[in-house]
Amino acid sequence: MELKIAIQGIKGSNHHQVARDYFGDNIELLEYNSFDAVVDNLLQGVADMGIMAIENSIAGSIIPNYNLVYHNNIHIIGEHYLNIHHNLMVLKGKTFEDIKEVHSHPMALLQCKEFFKAHSRIKLVESVDTAETAKRIKEGNLNNIAAIAPKMAAELYGLDIIADNIQTIVNNSTRFIILKKQNKVLPKEEINKASLRFITDHKRGSLATVLNVLSDCNMNLTKIQSLPVIETPWKYAFFVDVTFDKYEQFSKTKSLLQIMAEDFRVLGEYKKALL
């Protein structure tokens, strides 16, 4: 039976690549226009699991997605890192000289800004998704428009790549999280990473005390992100990722943080991915 995997974007997108890397080819891909729709269909049981970009090595955290995970009480059951390669693609037979406009996701355009400084005649146009533009070029037979998209999009929609890896910074990686309604799909001995969320008191040293506990319990802090608590102005929640060698160490950490921190929740326990 094929797993139903929800993604933001369409076939040929980076989310599709992650789905294939993580789950293999035997999946049914459910394509949605937004991360909210991915979460909604996961909660409704339409999708078995979902994939969500959470941070980029250049652009940083995708802040709204942290709150989507927390407020909808869904669970992180895995992660995957994808090296991002931006490729310029056109209809077959077209050349660079034919291009009048380049369409892509705003982040892709931003990450390729330096490349286009030498080609000021080309207009850069924002679109909702990288692969969506590639698909639109093919279906609309758009002669003078190019897309910035993953290599998979060129393969799926029959386009020619006329310039590859045009991103300004070569080492560009995005972390994706794998989502499910239920947590703990792995045995404890395989779990070595966790995502947490908590609030600290408005007292001097409160966060430092929590961080000291993490250190004392042999937790390796790999990520910390603060976000405002919407219901309480000027109060902040902390989203934290930790890695560890033994699950028993993490169990001790959980017990202590439940006492020390306010509104403590484990968002996911899973196996860390290779960078």
Keywords for this entry:
6-stranded mixed sheet, D-Maltodextrin-Binding Protein, domain 2, 3 domains, alpha/beta, elongated
Could you say which structural class the secondary elements and strand pairing correspond to? Answer: alpha/beta
Give me the number of helical elements: 9
Q: Which CATH architecture of the largest domain is right? A: 3-Layer(aba) Sandwich
And the CATH topology of the largest domain? Answer: D-Maltodextrin-Binding Protein, domain 2
CATH class of the largest domain: Alpha Beta
Taking Cα atoms only, what radius of gyration do you get, to the nearest Å?
Answer: 21 Å
Question: Can you characterise this structure?
Answer:
The strands form three sheets. Strands 1, 2, 3, 4, 5 and 11 form a six-stranded mixed sheet that branches. Strands 8-7-9-6-10 form a five-stranded mixed sheet. A four-stranded antiparallel sheet has the order 13-14-12-15, sandwiched between helices. It folds into three domains: 3-83 and 173-180, Periplasmic binding protein-like II (D-Maltodextrin-Binding Protein, domain 2, 3-Layer(aba) Sandwich); 87-163, D-Maltodextrin-Binding Protein, domain 2 (3-Layer(aba) Sandwich), CATH 3.40.190.10; 191-270, ACT domain (Alpha-Beta Plaits), CATH 3.30.70. It is an alpha/beta fold and 275 residues long. The protein has nine helices and 15 strands. The mean pLDDT is 94. The relative contact order is 0.17. Helix 6 runs parallel beside helix 7 (151-157). Helices cover 30% and strands 35% of the residues. The chain has helices at 14-23, 35-43, 63-71, 106-111, 113-117, 130-140, 151-157, 206-216, 247-260; strands at 3-8, 27-32, 49-56, 60-61, 75-83, 87-91, 101-104, 123-126, 145-149, 159-163, 173-180, 193-199, 220-228, 236-243, 262-270.
